[in-house]
Amino acid sequence: VMSEIDDRIAKSTSGVTGRIAEMISTTNVALFVVTAAVQIALAAMTIYFIIANIRKPMTAICEGIEAFSAGRLDARISLNRSDEWSTIEQALNRAAAALQSSQSALEAKVVELQKEIEARRRAEAESVLLEEQLRHAQKMEAIGTLAGGVAHDFNNMLTAIIGYGNMAVLQTQADDQVQGYLRQILTAADRGATLTQSLLAFSRRQLIALEPVDLNAVIVAFEPLLRRVAGESVRLEMRLSSESVVIVADRAQIEQVLMNLVINARDAVSGEGTIIIETGSRLVSDSEAEKLGLKAGGVFASLSISDNGVGMDEETVKRIFEPFFTTKEVGKGTGLGLAMVYGIVQQHRGSISVKSTVGVGTRFDILIPTTPEMPTEHGDDSGEAPPGGSETILLAEDQPEVRGFIRSLLEQNGYTVIEAVNGAEAVELFGKSGHIDLLLLDVMMPTMNGREALDAIRAIAPGAKALFLSGYAGDVLSRQGILDDDVCLVTKPVSPWQLLRQVRTILDSPPCTDA
Predict the structure, then answer these.
(1) Which residues pair with residue 274 across a beta bridge?
(2) How far is Cα 222 from Cα 262, in angstroms, rounded to an integer?
(3) What is the pLDDT of residue 481?
(4) What angle do CA 382, 368, 364 make, to 5 degrees?
(5) How far does CA 342 lie from the centroid of its chain?
């Protein structure tokens, strides 16, 4: 019995132990499952936390930083949070705003610097241009001074040659061979006078008679002669403005400009080609006037003469206005034509410029100030020279050959002549003489010039009539304070008949204001 009981107890114990082990095993599985589930839940919660609280704001911040790096500094990070991420967001946005402000300031500074650099470049270019213009003006002024002095001396000599030559012609018969020789001398002297006038025109020392003239009318009246000069094989086109262009000018000088430029163009096209003359009005600003060498801006008459000839290179263009410079063959040009044009334009307070391309052609552009005045109308002033007279004339001239010619001329026509070799002697002789009807004074004399002598004489005889002689132009003498409006001037070389006519005119009328 006990043995059976022990067996049963053993079996029961074994069963209980098995069931307990089974129960423990089942419990372990359940615990593992629960633990795994808890871990999975925790992982899911962690992932959600990371996505919600780290990844999204981090992504937004990274996108913002990439935008900043790409140069879009106006972009902003927006997280809509109130935690630590908000602090990072604000810091990055402030940094972007500061960078944007700095970049804007830098860009503005760059633009300012670019403008400053460009302004300096323009200023340097203008400075170089002005320096070049100044050097050119100084060179031309120096050449002009030399040319004017040479012309003045030649005019004194030509006055004697032309004067004595004409007087000698009167002493010979028309069929006398000597008269033929004399006329050849006078012809050569006239050519010399033309050259000196060219030099004076270049140096702006030539006497000019300024008056309001219609530029178009001058060209139209001069057109037939210009066409003959250009030649039949050259096409001369006139493109004149429809409205009048009135300038204050010397008509003869403007004609000389036209003639010289047309001749120059004709030679450039080698007798075949096209020459175009254009006129118009042009408004010139003060800045442009400064570049062109004009005193001030305003409304200017424009005169352009162009051709389709051989053209010129840059070095030639720089020298074309210099006297005696020419590209023509020896004997075919004096080199004074364009120099004369330059001087005439300058004397009319204008400017001249040239554009030329080798093989294409050349264009000269001239600007002269316009005037609201009406053009002056001229009547017929031709007529015979007035007769001589019996008045007493005080002649002051330092050149013996000129003084001798004038004395002989005046005495042959009935005048009494008292000679002086300078202004001081003229004043002394005037004080010693009983009555002097006319003072005939050379302007430039040693010891005392003609103006100073006239002032001294008029201090004791205010009504004394005077006539000046000079190889220079009136405007040059005016600038030097030598001439006023109450004196007359004739320029050398002067023909005998011109001098007699002027002497008679002054003796028969009140003191003139121009000659």
Answers:
(1) 235
(2) 12
(3) 54
(4) 100
(5) 13
